[in-house]
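G., the chain you wanted modeled:
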Amino acid sequence: MFERRRRMIKKILSLMLCIVLLLANIYSVSAASDLDSAVFRLEALGILLGDENGDLQLDKELTRAEFTAILVRMLGIDTVTFADGTQGNFSDVMPEHWAYGAITTAAGLNIIEGKGDGTFCPDEYVTNEQVMKMLVCALGYEIAAENQGGYPEGYMAVAVGRGITKGASVIMNNPCTRANAAICVNNALDVKLLESFSTTGELTTTEDTLYDRLIKNMDGVWKKGKLTETEFTGIFIILP
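Predicted structure as tokens:
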């Protein structure tokens, strides 16, 4: 009797282990799929750039300047070109800084605020909650986030509610990796932009997304027909 029970428990434990391993594998495949899709589209749109060797360094942690540059490209805005010696918004971001144009542009759009002491600390690692705040502000949901408690909880709540964090590992106070940023930025592209926010907390969105606006502004010729792939020709598609 005891031996039969022991064998039964062993079978149950083995089954549970198989289920856990299967679920972990499914999650891993899903996460990889989310990242692959994000990278494919962001590269095609010119939002995510690699180093001089084309390496995207997806495991690398992002700095505040690096993410601000990604954010401005996501908005499809050409960074403002300033004359040499022109003072920007932050005392520690000089015109010679490589991300000066992006940082000054984002500050002008009230997407970034800096540290509150006149500095931006461009070379510090950007945290996940800072990334969420910038994305939420870029999409126009700042008032909704402030209504839910402000920074950081309100912005995290809006980011989760709008699906920005779907497929990403977003842990507060942790530096944001390029992989997580890619997934969140890609999700943000498909969020409908906020049109109005009522005193009762009701959101009214537009039918437009940032992706829609980026596509509309892209140069190209649209043709309808059938393309047959050969060893010399192929097709490159920007996925919605």
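DSSP finds eight helices and two strands in the chain.

Shout if anything looks off.
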